[in-house]
């Protein structure tokens, strides 16, 4: 999808805010901890290349979802370690080695497949994944973990790390988190040849369970200034949201009482009203369920009326504003603010999804400015 740079809808990313958030987390964890910045899914919608370039000096490596995300960073000049968190099929290993990418190996079946396909594991850099209770990928016992490590080393691979992922680190009830942590520690204690780099801490764990950090952390949504728990847990220290989503009014009209707006005629005016059109829609990731939500114009709340279309929304204004008037969908406008979590609440989802859904049609612009810690 082409970036629509000639349309007023845009996402503005504050790179200094991201740097501030990384520094804030690092101030609250042990010195010497290896810090990964997670930039998968286009850096949670913020732009992977721009974010990685801006923070490379502040972190020790990066985490991505797949090979293509890793190669994108390498081609952009990123030289630090890149760990792929998802499963990569063995037939891609020549590509992996060419770009010096670190892989996750999650099962003995994967090694068997590599052997069956005649794929050499010699020189492969990898971490093994432990499924301590997340239920997605990874071995579930120390016996399988030991066999995995041994098999990889016999095949000439370099086993540099071991990790797991917590399912409930962002929840107030810590029972299942503690159960997963105990399982992971037990498996580690039974490894006959434990890799040096051990990591289990995602954003939530780094914020609310920093005492459980091993030798590395994976900082994801926290570096973009979002609360991983939504509203369930208060942040232990301030973060600065890095993304602002704005557009402009492109059309204004006054409609009479009982006039309808939008597909399905789902909105009917209660009186004479001023309706404005804003060029953003579900093709941009501003989904149809945002009808009834509000945006900010001139520091005032303005309701989205009528169904969200593919390319446009309609909002009710308190008065006629000129074409080109700014509209804030996420961010501050006057003394009011809309957060990604506010949008998530409307959609009954999480703030991660809100930002990851912002499509490539929305151009990203970058700024750097001074922030107080």
UniProtKB/TrEMBL annotation:
Enzyme Commission number: 5.1.1.1
Residues reported in the UniProt entry to bind substrate: 136, 310
Top-level taxon of the source organism: Bacteria
SMART domains per UniProt: Ala_racemase_C
Catalytic site positions: 40 (proton acceptor), 263 (proton acceptor)
Catalysed reactions, as listed in the record: L-alanine = D-alanine
Cofactor annotation: pyridoxal 5'-phosphate
Protein name, as recorded: Alanine racemase
Native source organism of the sequence: Streptococcus sciuri
Chain's gene name: alr
């Amino acid at each position: 999808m082409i970036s629509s740079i000639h349309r007023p809808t845009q996402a503005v990313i504050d790179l200094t805010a991201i740097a501030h958030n990384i520094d804030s987390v690092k101030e609250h964890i042990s010195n010497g901890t290896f810090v990964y910045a997670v930039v998968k899914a286009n850096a949670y919608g913020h732009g992977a290349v721009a974010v990685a370039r801006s923070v490379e000096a502040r972190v020790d490596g990066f985490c991505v979802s797949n090979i293509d995300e890793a190669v994108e960073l390498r081609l952009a000049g990123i030289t630090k370690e890149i760990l792929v968190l998802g499963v990569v099929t063995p037939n891609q290993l020549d590509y992996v080695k060419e770009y010096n990418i670190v892989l996750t190996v999650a099962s003995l079946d994967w090694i068997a497949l590599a052997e069956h396909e005649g794929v050499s594991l010699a020189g492969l850099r990898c971490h093994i994944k432990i499924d301590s209770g997340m239920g997605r990928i990874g071995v579930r016992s120390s016996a399988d973990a030991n066999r995995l490590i041994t098999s990889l080393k016999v095949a000439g691979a370099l086993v540099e790390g071991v990790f797991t992922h917590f399912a409930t680190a962002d929840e107030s009830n810590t029972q299942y988190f503690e159960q997963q942590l105990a399982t992971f520690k037990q498996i580690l204690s039974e490894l006959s040849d434990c890799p040096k780099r051990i990591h289990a801490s995602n954003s939530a764990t780094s914020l609310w369970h920093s005492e459980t950090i091993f030798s590395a952390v994976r900082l994801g949504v926290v570096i973009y200034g979002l609360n991983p728990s939504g509203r369930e847990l208060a942040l232990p220290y301030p973060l600065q949201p890095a993304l602002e989503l704005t557009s402009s009014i492109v059309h204004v009209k006054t409609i009479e009482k009982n006039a309808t707006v939008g597909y399905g005629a789902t909105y009917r005016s209660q009186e004479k009203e001023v309706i404005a059109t804003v060029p953003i829609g579900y093709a941009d990731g501003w989904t149809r369920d945002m009808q009834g939500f509000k945006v900010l114009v001139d520091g005032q709340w303005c309701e989205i009326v009528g169904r969200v279309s593919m390319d446009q929304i309609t909002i009710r204004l308190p008065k006629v504003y000129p074409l080109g008037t700014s509209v804030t969908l996420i961010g501050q406008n006057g003394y009011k603010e809309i957060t990604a979590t506010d949008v998530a609440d409307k959609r009954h989802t999480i703030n991660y999804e809100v930002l990851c859904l912002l499509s490539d049609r929305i151009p990203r612009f970058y700024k750097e400015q001074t922030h107080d810690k």
